[in-house]
Amino acid sequence: MNSYSLSQWVLFFYIYCFFGWCFESAYVSIKERHFVNRGFLRLPMLPIYGSGALAILVVTIPVRTNLVFVYVLGTLSATLLELVTGAAMEAIFKMRYWDYSDQKFNYKGYICLSSSIAWGFLAILLTEFIHKPIEQFVLNVNVALKWSLLGVITVLFVSDLVGSVKAAWDLRKLLEQLEKLKEKTEELEQKLEQQKEKIAESVAEQKEKLAESVAEQKERIAESVAEQKERITESVAEQKERIAESVAEQKEKLAVQKERLARKKEQLGQRIAELPTYMSETGNDDYDSVSERMRKEIENLWEERRTYMEKTNFLMRSQLRGNPNAKSKKFGHALADLKEKAKQKREKKEA
Question: Which helix (H) or strand (E) holds 109?
């Protein structure tokens, strides 16, 4: 163990990355009921498993003969690695590529008790059974073959890692843009709703004022009619000799008064019916133009959001498909939309 060279350690890392991918992809594929190329990379490699295996092998060197210590140190080292890696990736890419939030006794979703217990048993399995044949293979492999394997795998690994990091970063920027568009759209929709409420209140106030005006006009006309009748009665008593002429004259005046009252009622009814047009023309509230402008702006924002969702390239979609349980606190809604879009494209392709 102490005599391993750097090249041998690197070869161990690659082997355990591959074994980890086999295990994780098989587990998730069975769970999702279709093949899932699990992980951050496109290659069949999961660096978290390779790093975890090396961490366990290194920290358990002094206690290899004591299985209790192997279990404890393996649990602690792998759990710490999982915690640091998960927190770092979420801080950088704003996505949680694995999440234990639904598990009991978890810490911020990065680690959980059941996973840590499994790491401990994996440490014993690794040191007692798995590593021995792999160790023999690596120590006995032909030097030329070893360096050829290291060269080819390293080039592929580094290329894939650079491409995957770029895709993850582009995905983060896309999620940020989608979330901003969503917030702006919701803000405009809220303003439009407030505009509707404001218009409703204004219409109610105008109707109330018109109703009060109609009531006042009716009251004044009724008083005027009563006064006219009273004057007519007094005039008839005082001037009996001209009663016929006076009655005709007063009737004519009453007819005029009634005609005026009818016209005023008709005008008030027309004002109530034309209230929205009246409000627009008098500048009380330009509801139609404001609402139409807001609706067009909301439609433009949704169209822009749909355009952004089509910008996912092959590597970005592979990130989403390879991590079906990925979550994001900051961009949760946008990530869910993108995952659904990637799922639809996969189903369409399979069909």
Answer: none
Residue 294, CA distances (Å) to 200, 201, 286, 288, 308 in order: 17, 20, 12, 10, 21
Q: Which of 150, 141, 140, 139 is nearest to 3 (CA)?
A: 139
Q: Which helix (H) or strand (E) holds 345?
A: helix 332-350
Terminus-to-terminus CA distance in the chain, angstroms? 51
For helices 275-282 and 243-273, what crossing angle results, to 10°? 70
Helix axis angle, 243-273 to 143-238, nearest 10°: 180
pLDDT along the chain (351 residues), means of 10: 84 97 92 86 94 96 94 97 95 89 93 95 96 95 94 97 92 86 85 85 83 79 74 64 63 69 66 54 55 75 69 64 73 74 70 62
Q: What is the 3-state secondary structure (H, E, C) of 159-220?
A: HHHHHHHHHHHHHHHHHHHHHHHHHHHHHHHHHHHHHHHHHHHHHHHHHHHHHHHHHHHHHH
Helix (H, G, I), strand (E, B) or coil at 97: coil
Global model pTM greater than 0.90: no
Instruction: List phi, psi (to 5°) of 140.
Output: -100, -5
CA neighbor of 174 nearest in space, from 84, 62, 294, 305: 305
Do 56 and 127 meet the contact criterion of CB atoms below 8 Å apart? yes
SS (H, E, C) 232-277: HHHHHHHCHHHHHHHHHHHHHHHHHHHHHHHHHHHHHHHHHHCHHH
Nearest CA to 306 out of 174, 186, 119, 173 is that of: 174
Main-chain phi, psi angles of 112, to 5 degrees: -150, 165
